[in-house]
Amino acid sequence: MRNIIYILFFMSVALHAQTKMSTAESATLKAKVKAQAFTINTLLSDFTQYKHLDFLSNDIITSGKLSFKSPNMVKWEYVTPFKYAVLFKNETLFINDEGKKSNIDIGSNKMFKQLNTLIINSVKGDMFDENEFDITCFKNGANSEVYFSPKDKKFSKYIKAFQIIFNKDGDVVELKMIEPSEDYTKIVFSNRTVNMNLSDAIFNQ
Amino acid sequence: MRYLISSFCLLFIACGSYSKKRNFQIQTTSNKIIHNPYFSNEKKDYVYKANIAVYDKLFSGIFIVKKLGEANHRIVFTTEMGNKIFDFSFLNDTFKVNFIIEDINKAILINILKKDFKALVQEKIPIIKSYSSQDTLVYETALDNKKHFYFKTQQLNKIIRVKNGKEKVTFLFLEINDIIANQIKISHSNIKLKINLKSIN
């Protein structure tokens, strides 16, 4: 009996860890993140990616470096357990797969264009577009958790929701892409540096 | 009439069996079953970096296989960034597409992948005939009603799907460590399709 009480107690604590924000709190967070995103010219961060598939015993972990330069250059560079870089630049996707280079023109592909915009916006945290997403904000300790559910039906077949965790300063610390099946890709950022001088050479493929 | 006979003769030679063409020697063996051990451990998540070349297009991503029970495998392919491309289930003789992106949702392609992946994950295959070729034992089987030859020296090194006496698909198992093939190469001879898998875990 005592065990059941303990379990119920911990369950209620867990349930209360995340509370929905009021409209005013959501508006404050949105304003803070937007202001923060506006000041980002360059961004450099390490990342660790966890691919969760429900049937696997362990998440698949990959890690690397993210570089961003305003307005629209983003490079995801995986270092372990393989070397693979993908660069979004001038409506083209440049890929370097362990030395093998290729590129994809995304100018004509609406889905890729959306993806590119989303990646840039999610890195900065600025995804608060109510025409594109149903947005729900939660408080979790000092952090804020925001769920962005795509309104576009075609898009929502692939991604049920983006969950972004912001720290108290409004920086993105974690990005999660949740699929309709509940499998997800979680990217955790660390060693984040903003507005340092980033050479354009980093964005040459 | 003479032409007809010679045409038949030519046809007969052209369709000569794969084992005869390759000079395999018939072997008597007590083995009734050949085992493919490379995706047989339920405790292991099999994770490979995959490179796929279809005609002139190159794709890459993560290829994941999990054994979920007896004759039950799940196969998922994602991009490096984690987006799912396809998700298939094999359970006994049934095959199910759990998910596939619209761009490649074509019956002909799914059918090719289904046949290839079935050969990767099918663990026990009844032997029809046994042969030897130098230091290699060769087992003829009828996986999915299609003729497949399994080549085994110390371990299973190669599977070849054969049609009308000709090699159609080759599966190579390389860098074998116990029952893990750290590299797997699948190549088709009638279509330009190559799949290379490199273990990353």
Share of helix of chain B, binned: 10-25%
- Counted up, domains of chain A total 1
Question: What general outline of chain A do the C-alpha atoms trace?
Answer: globular
Structural class of chain A: alpha+beta
Largest interface: A-B, 25 and 27 residues
Order of helices and strands of chain B: HHEEEEEEEHEEEEEEE
Largest sheet of chain A: 12 strands, antiparallel
Domain count of chain B, please report it: 1
Q: Give the total of beta strands of chain B.
A: 14
Strand and helix map with partners:
The complex is a heterodimer of chains A (205) and B (201).
Chain A: H1 2-17, E1 18-20, H2 23-39, E2 42-52, E3 60-69, E4 73-80, E5 84-89, E6 92-97, E7 100-105, H3 110-124, E8 133-140, E9 143-150, H4 153-156, E10 161-166, E11 172-178, E12 184-194
Antiparallel strand pairs in A: 1-8, 2-3, 2-12, 3-4, 4-5, 5-6, 6-7, 8-9, 9-10, 10-11, 11-12
Chain B: H1 2-14, H2 18-21, E1 25-27, E2 33-35, E3 45-54, E4 57-69, E5 72-78, E6 84-91, E7 94-100, H3 107-121, E8 124-133, E9 136-143, E10 146-152, E11 156-163, E12 166-177, E13 180-188, E14 193-199
Antiparallel strand pairs in B: 1-8, 2-8, 3-4, 3-14, 4-5, 5-6, 6-7, 8-9, 9-10, 10-11, 11-12, 12-13, 13-14
